[in-house]
Write a structure and sequence with these properties.
single chain, alpha/beta, Rossmann fold, 8-stranded mixed sheet, 5-stranded parallel sheet, 17 helices, about 15% strand, globular, ATP-binding protein, ATP binding
Length: about 425
């Protein structure tokens, strides 16, 4: 299956100022597969080291972490010669060996000709919570997310449809209605399946939603296991409580996160570490409210007002135990949940494209789902789960801030009207 990360890895390999690369991301998003596939197609050989399956590896890094010392030993362990620029060195589950992470500094300074990529689950947690020397400034860092809507469609063999969607997005011209209907159906399938590569592969091969759901449940169980395994004893229960509650809060009319809904009398001081753990692990992300629409948006965020979205739509539906057909046909019983689910979907697509997302509220309660910086402009994005697109909030925002244009995502076909770029939900990846 095609992953966009391959384009990034190719440019990393070509870059003469390349540093060792840390590929981070939540469990099961395809880090190891992508790295090994890249190594297989772009290098003469791959020297792969997994610190989870081979705990003895840690001892190699205890005495000395200079490249001159490590390379001969690693060549021996791998059973193949590690050659500068021709071998890809891979450290997997590197969060389990602090010294291996620290060694990247010396590879960067003393042996930049060796190509190294390291990956690990919960790397953000490991780096944030331990006291060892992280190689700040000596590594490149990239986050891998679940597959986006474009990668999902490509996996299903819809290359021509993807090309037409991109063209209609740029030209603001409607997609032929039959293709629009097909794309909307694929979008709803994506909501059920999500972007975890194993789930997408199973769906491509079998179209069996029950089999996909079983895999999703397994991934959710591994997340819960991580919360116990890599977390402070006092925080385990709080982290699980917070995680369980995030999906509940997405069903609320106001999806802004409230600590008191986790448990009666819940406060920030009690749960903020748990939420930080979930964010660092890549399982969820926080979207803050901005108080003013000025650059840089980060300077105007309200640290006490935020929403939390999960990193994968399929896992969201599995966690809520939603039946595939209910989502495919968007049954009325889902009405309370549709808005939060679709906001979550859009946030995932925007995050994968590298945007920092924020939301905005007026003093009187008008709300814009997302504000992003796109091509140097601050652009509001309104999200609607169906094709009913009447809303006062966007008008209030546009009258107040006069943006270059606005984007409205809904079930409607492409177009441009009243200075609003109309984009169907399946094309959110184009933004």
């Amino acid at each position: 299956m095609y992953r966009k990360i391959m384009d990034f890895l190719e440019s990393w390999k070509r870059n003469e100022h390349r540093k060792p690369l840390i590929l981070q991301g939540a469990r099961q998003v395809g880090k190891t597969y992508s790295i090994l596939e890249f190594g297989r197609t772009h290098y003469e050989n791959v020297a792969y080291f997994n610190f989870e399956t081979n705990p003895k590896l840690n001892k190699t890094f205890e005495e000395n972490i200079s490249p001159d010392y490590l390379i001969p030993i690693l060549s021996h362990i791998a059973g193949q010669t590690i050659v500068r620029e021709k071998t890809l060195i891979v450290f997997d589950e590197v969060q389990l060996c602090e010294r291996a992470l620290t060694s990247l500094k010396y590879f960067c300074e003393d042996a930049p000709d060796y190509h190294i990529i390291v990956a690990g689950n919960l790397l953000g947690v490991a780096v944030n919570r331990t006291i060892f020397s992280f190689p700040v400034g000596k590594v490149d860092i990239k986050t891998l997310y679940p597959m986006d809507m474009e990668e999902f469609m490509l996996a299903l063999g819809e290359e021509n449809l993807v090309k037409q969607i991109k063209n209609c997005f740029h030209m603001n011209t409607p997609l032929p209605s039959a293709l629009h209907d097909t794309a909307m159906q694929l979008y709803r399938q994506y909501l059920v399946v999500g972007g975890m590569p194993e789930c997408v592969m199973q769906f491509v091969q079998t179209k069996d939603y029950i089999l996909v759901r079983h895999t999703q449940d397994t991934i959710l169980a591994s997340y819960l296991n991580d919360m116990s395994k890599y977390n402070n004893l006092n925080e385990i229960k709080k982290t699980r409580l917070a995680y369980d509650n995030i999906t509940v809060q997405l069903s609320k009319k106001n999806t802004r996160f409230q600590y008191k809904l986790i448990k009666k009398g819940g406060r920030a001081s009690e749960f903020e570490n748990a939420i930080e753990w979930l964010c660092l692990s890549g399982i969820v992300s926080q979207v803050y409210k901005v108080e003013q629409i000025k650059k840089p948006l980060e300077n105007y965020r309200d640290i006490d007002a935020f929403k939390i979205y999960v990193s994968d739509l399929g896992l969201l539906c599995a966690k809520k135990d939603l039946a595939a057909n209910d989502i495919l046909y968007m049954v009325e019983e889902l009405n309370d949940f549709k808005g939060g689910m679709v906001e979550n979907y859009v946030n995932v697509q925007l995050s994968i494209n590298g945007y920092h997302t924020y939301f905005w509220e007026s003093a009187r309660g008008a709300e814009i789902d997302f504000v992003i910086q796109r091509d140097g402009q601050l652009i509001p994005i309104e999200v609607k789960s169906a094709d009913n697109t009447k809303a006062k909030s966007l008008k209030i925002y546009m009258d107040t801030y006069n943006p270059a244009y606005a984007i409205r995502l809904s079930a409607k076909n492409f177009g441009f009207e009243d200075n609003k770029k109309i984009v169907p939900l399946y094309a959110a990846f184009c933004i």
